[in-house]
Dipeptidase PepE (Campylobacter corcagiensis), 233 residues
Amino acid sequence: MKKALLFSSSSYKDTGYLRHCKNPIKEFLGDDYKDEILFIPYAGVSRSNDEYESKVTDRLKTKTIKSIHRYDDKKAAIRGAKTIAVGGGNTFMLLHELYKFDLVDEIKQAVLNGAKYFGWSAGANIAGATMMTTNDMPIIMPKSFDSLGIFPYQINPHFISGKISGHNGVSREDRLNEFLKVHPNEIVYALPEGAWLEIDNGECKICGLADEIYKFEFEKDVVTLKVGENFKI
């Protein structure tokens, strides 16, 4: 059984850090919101693990969050977790650290065994099949680009269509189509800010404050999927 909540970002417009995520997370976790949430801070390059843990605790208004860096036996912490939360930041650093501590398979198995998972930005990206559709700079090389596969397709968080005025590089659509040119059998779900996916075993529901998300496939027209729609995974 897989249950996950995958947010494009930690904030939406001017709502502030994790504000638009708080109520969906509470509803998703139900009574488990009162129990300890195991937090994985490894994407947070610009802040210490302690600082990241404190910030998330403060924003979600719960005292039950405990970062994995506080555990000597990190595998045992994952095996015992009812809920695993993975924060945003740099996806390359996040996956590098998870592989360094040999935690990728542990998280996969924990979710299969019933642990709930929620993450934003990098934490959402690694819930897909691989991290290859992240937007982040490769500041460090992980052991593999393969990630958790909680959602069996690719995720592109922070999706913005088109080009910013004055930008002479390629658009996000161009980058995703480059990925599909090299990996034509993959599917990419692009999440604009304010959108998230709710995974419940074999079903995925599109949720959020945004109106829609986008499905990219090789040499096919982009498909627009509206908030409130469900699809099988």
